[in-house]
Amino acid sequence: MTYFLLRRTFGFIATLIAVSIVVFAVMNVLPGDPALTILGMDATDDALAALRKELGLNDPLLARYFAWVGGALTGDFGTSHSFRVPVAELITERLAMTVSLAVAGMVLTLVIALSVGIFAAANHGKAGDWATMFISQLGIAVPAFWLSILLVLLFAVKLRWLPPGGFAGWSDPVAALRSLVLPTVALALVQSAVLARVTRSSALEVMRQDFTRTARASGLSQRRILWRHVLPNALVPIVTIVGMQFAALVTGTIVIENVFYLPGLGRLIFQSIANRDLPTVQALVMLFAVIVVTANFVVDLLYVLIDPRLKARA
Amino acid sequence: MFELQNMTVRFSFGEALREASLRINPGDRIGIVGESGSGKSMLAACLMGMVPDAAELTGTLGVDGIDMTHASEAHWQTIRARRVAMIFQEPMSALNPLRRVGETVAEPMRVHLGLGKAQARARVSALFKEVGIPDPDSRLRMFPHELSGGQRQRVLIALALACDPELLIADEPTTALDANVALKITDLLVDLSRTRNMALVFISHDLAAVARATTDIAVMYGGDIVERGRTAEVLANPVHPYTQGLLAARPDPRAVPRDANGRRRRLPTIPGTVPPLYKLPQGCRFSGRCAVERSACAYVKPAPVGPRHATCHAITQDTL
After folding, report:
1. Which of A26, A60, A191, A211 shows a CA-CA span of 20 to 30 A to B196?
2. For residue A313, which residues of chain B lie inside 8 Å, CB to CB?
3. Do A214 and B76 touch (CB under 8 A)?
4. Distance between CA B226 and CA B34 in Å, rounded?
5. What is the Cα–Cα distance from A43 to A158, expressed in whole angstroms?
6. Which residue of A has its CA nearest to B101?
7. DSSP one-letter string for B211-255
8. Residue B259: pLDDT above 90?
């Protein structure tokens, strides 16, 4: 067990180092001169050279990499070229939005997918199964941005229940939550369509196993058997997909925040790329990568919590 | 008390059980024998209310005089565990792998008997002791994969006994175990049946185990109960051609392996195999494989004859 934890932690750190190298390399070998971007086409050669020196662009690549990593570890990601404020400040201002969206989206995804998946499995081969699987197939086929537009048209434009987009800040919590409802639903519906199908097939597989029959022979209700015996045993494939989906949700906020005009990391990365704001883009790509790698690390640990047989082997 | 009367289980592709009647009184120990596909497990499923939804049931299944043939799943949930419980063939896969075995055994007590955590735990510990699990208080914290096959089967027996059922159905309980452990589990089931005055339905194709465990026997073939009686009498003097074939096919450890001419003796077998449900003959299910078959056998269902209720056209009151 200790060995397993050590190995996974080592793998986690190694992955992060590899990611940082790739992110740094891609950002720095890309064509385009940051100094030129900042000062514009009319800048004099002297001014450009001075700025390059100030930005440290003349230093060897390796030195710049370590300077960047060292800064990142202490929370210093440099200064944004376009916003003229520290990148760390930009990120912390917007992190709450993106994290709330992703977490709320994940929770909603789990609630919908587990209920629908278990319902479909319990009604295997019957009308309820066919109907839910047909709808989930539609859900998989629909792109999130298009679904967002439909949701806005229905709930914001036609019914006027919820705001169509924008965000007035957290000072009015009710208004803030109301503006997050549609984006969360848009994020969750597509993801839960995929997860519901995984839940259904995994649950069906478990329901064929002998211990489900034992539970039924013990006079337990179908509800109890499904939620307390079948679902826990169906969790391993579900958790695998959830790990990948959390990554997809975090990156999915890029699209959703732009559709709903929300001030989160997704909008920030979009603006920074448009502005060739290298330090910001670099920090954000690294941050998204860290979130994805961490999600996978957590999933690995969850497997062991779910299944005692893995603990024995690990 | 449980009583099946003329129970037929019909699927679109054939009958898995045909007009089976069986009466189980408290403390009875009944063996059900027959080849795979003979309807033994379907008979058990009837008694548990666990016949697949696709089947059509006719006849009656009385539990204390109440007809449960078309009872709801909710009604059955009040019968299972408390009145009738069952253990299955595969102790390896019959326990939830993610749960400590103590939790698994405690669950029906907590659900059906409303026991608290501590009460249930004490009861599980006592049950483990009763079924011969050494050091019960540490075993109940273990996961199924940490126990041997025999220990898991004992846990499953404890689970079946959790709510003191009047009837325990054991469906091939020893098939997956090695011979020595199988013998101990068989003896344990007999002891439990005696001390608790609990009826035992012992399903097996192992005639030796059935002879050891039961006082009465029902022989099944193709969904029919073809012969029944006291276990010792049926095994010593079978009347139905199928039972005779089944007994002849039993390897006898005392038999001389070579005959008078020095030729190796071959173990007699019943020719052919049990046909699939949709190919079973309309009349006597055994026709087509039977040594004493007559022309009508395949088309006319034989009525039970004599004290053994043997279903065979070749048997008359005179030949008995």
Report:
1. A211
2. none
3. no
4. 10
5. 51
6. A211
7. HHH-SEEEEEETTEEEEEEEHHHHHHS--SHHHHHHHHTS--TTS
8. no
Number of helical (H) and strand (E) elements in chain A, helices listed first: 14, 0
Grade residue B85 by pLDDT with cuts at 50, 70 and 90: very high
More confident residue, A202 or B272: A202
How many domains would you assign to chain B?
1
Q: Which residue of B has its CA nearest to A211?
A: B94
The CA-atom distances, in angstroms, between B101 and each of A157, B154, B279 are: 57, 11, 43
In the predicted structure, residue A278 carries a pLDDT above the cut 90: no
Confidence at residue B269, expressed as pLDDT on a 0 to 100 scale = 83
Report the residue of A214, A228, A235, A313 to disrupt the B interface, i.e. the one with the largest count of B CBs within 10 Å: A214
A218–B81 C-beta distance less than 8 A: yes
Q: Which of residues 113-172 of B touch A (CB under 8 A)?
A: 143, 145-146, 156, 159-160, 162-163
Residues on chain A touching B112 (C-beta within 8 angstroms): 219
pTM summary value: 0.83
Q: Cβ of B95 and A219 within 8 Å?
A: no
pLDDT digits (tens, 9 = 90+) for B3-24: 999 999 999 999 999 999 999 9
What pLDDT does residue B320 have? Answer: 64
Is B154 a domain residue?
Answer: yes
Residue B263 lies in a domain: no
Residue A200 has pLDDT above 80, yes or no: yes
* Residue A304: half-sphere exposure toward Cβ, Cα within 13 Å: 14
Q: What is the ipTM of this complex?
A: 0.89
Range of the domain at B102: 2-221
Query: A209 and B99 in contact (C-beta within 8 Å)?
Result: no
Closest approach of B281 to chain A, Cα-based (Å): 31
One-letter amino acid at B44 equals A
Nearest to A312 among B77, B107, B145 (CB): B145
Long-range contacts of B64-72 (CB under 8 A, 24+ apart): B64/B1, B65/B1, B69/B7
Contacts of residue B143 in chain A, CB cutoff 8 Å? 308-309
Give the pLDDT confidence of A125-182 residue by residue, as tens digits.
899 999 999 999 888 888 878 888 888 889 888 888 888 888 877 788 888 888 889 9
Cα separation, B302 vs B306, whole angstroms: 12
Residue B279 placed within a domain: no
Please, are residues B220 and B32 in contact by the beta-carbon 8 Å criterion? yes
Q: Which residues of A touch B98 (CB under 8 A)?
A: 232-233, 306-308
Say if residue B72's pLDDT is above 90: yes
Q: Residue B77 maps to which CATH number?
A: 3.40.50.300
Task: Answer whether residue B152 is part of any domain.
Answer: yes
The pLDDT score that the predictor gives to residue B255 is 67
- Predicted confidence at residue A81, as pLDDT, reads 78
